[in-house]
Amino acid sequence: MQKRTPSKGAYLEHIFVLRAAVETKDVALFNDVALRLTSADYAVYFRGSEHKLLNNWAILLRHQNAFEQSRRAYECAKDIAFANEDTEQVVKIALNLHSILLKQGKLDEAKEVLREVEILSKETAYSTRLSHKLGMYYQAEKDYERASEFYQQAFVRFSLAHDFERAAISGLNLLHVQLVQRNRAGFWRYAQSVKEIIQQVPRNNSQYLLHFSVMQKIVEVMAFEFSKERLNLPEHWQEMMFKYGLNEEVELYRAMIGLTSGYVQQTSNTKRQVRNEVLPTPSWYLNYCQQ
Q1: pLDDT digits (tens, 9 = 90+) for 205-230
Q2: Is the dihedral of CA 122, 124, 127, 133 positive or negative?
Q3: 94-101: which pairs have CB atoms within 8 A and are 24 or more residues apart?
Q4: Residue 202: other Cβ atoms inside 10 A
Q5: What is the pTM of this model?
Q6: 237 pLDDT exceeds 80?
């Protein structure tokens, strides 16, 4: 008897579970579903979507702090998307790749990716995300004036598009750049608008409100609005910022107001150790990409 092809509904259910595995950072579940999707049984539905699977795998690797593996997976996914002439996915994957390159300090490579995206994004809906990524690039280059311009551009465009979460992230980055420059006037110019956008984030916005509150307090301290004994950031604020991966930000903010802490240094060292994480390469991955 000829083997029956699974239904389209079963395929879509696997796609849903795959996305859930990325959200919950469940590597074992992701690989189990990936093995099913890449099998001959689902070839009729899956063919042409390999780059999307690899992009999701790269995201999961990034969540696991396996940045070098994530970079290679993004590059492989981008090549396959390009071969499939899926321009929109090429841009989407390239923007994700750019973030990894910045984390690794590979600024020249990150710049090359942005040049490629700048050309391709004119044909897609990703021009606003490009503005945000350009802000990230120039921030890493310590060109804060240009970073501020691109973050402001992204903040306005995301806000007008009602993409409130991305607008909140761009807005917080804009405020951060103003803070790094000790530009209190620039900070307060945008602060209220950013706070209002944060309050419209549809899902949990506590991370963004926390970051905003910490920056606001630092600006107030810089303006000598607090007495000396109230300079210290509340311990629970610091712990929550570390939980959200804002280690570098809280270290910078503390340094700006003349504070040091062994707890901060210890947490930072732990974070650097985690960055060396390496995950086993799944068999399905080797069907599409070299290790």
Answers
A1: 888 998 898 888 888 777 664 444 45
A2: negative
A3: 94/120, 95/126, 95/129, 95/130, 95/133, 96/55, 96/58, 96/59, 96/62, 97/58, 97/71, 98/133, 98/136, 98/137, 99/62, 99/133, 99/136, 100/58, 100/62, 100/67, 100/70, 100/71, 100/74, 101/71
A4: 8
A5: 0.69
A6: no
